[in-house]
Amino acid sequence: MRPIVTITLIVAISATVAYFVLQEPERNPREDIFVNSYVELMLLWSQSDTVSASYLVKRDSILAGFGLTDSSLMALKRELNQDPERLIEIWDRVELQLNARRESLGLPTGADSTKE
Q1: Which of 3, 50, 92, 99 could potentially form a cystine with 109 if both were Cys, beta carbons 3.0 to 4.6 Å apart?
Q2: In whole angstroms, what is the distance from residue 66 CA to residue 23 CA?
């Protein structure tokens, strides 16, 4: 009976490991906050002519809506910079989400959306 128990344990452990390895990684809520806040800030920036007092108030309001300050956003960015491969994926998400938001607002997307 001992070999059957050993084989059963090996199969059970292998199945458990395979389950966790094959699972999609869970999204980090901090990454979602970064992406969402950065998209809103980029929209604000693209629609502003200057960095005025009104711009700064709107920026601070956007950050506060995500529970951030300017310094906490930069700290989060530094934290995310520690994993360059993951950061590329995050910036891809920013770009996709920004284009979707711009499109929903009837604004130009992609290369047409940059300020000169």
Answers
A1: 99
A2: 28
Q: Is residue 48 part of a domain?
A: yes
Query: Terminus-to-terminus CA distance in the chain, angstroms?
Result: 76
100 located within any domain: yes
Are 110 and 99 in contact, with CB atoms under 8 Å apart? yes
**Domain assignment of residue 39, given as a range:** 27-113
Return contacts of 24-28, CB within 8 angstroms, 24+ apart. none
Average confidence (pLDDT) over 96-103: 92
Residue with tokens 């809506």: 65
For residue 47, what are the contacts with CB-CB under 8 A and spacing of at least 6?
107
Looking at residue 12, its amino acid is A
CA distance 115 to 107: 12
pLDDT tens-digit map of 65-89 = 999 888 988 888 888 889 888 889 9
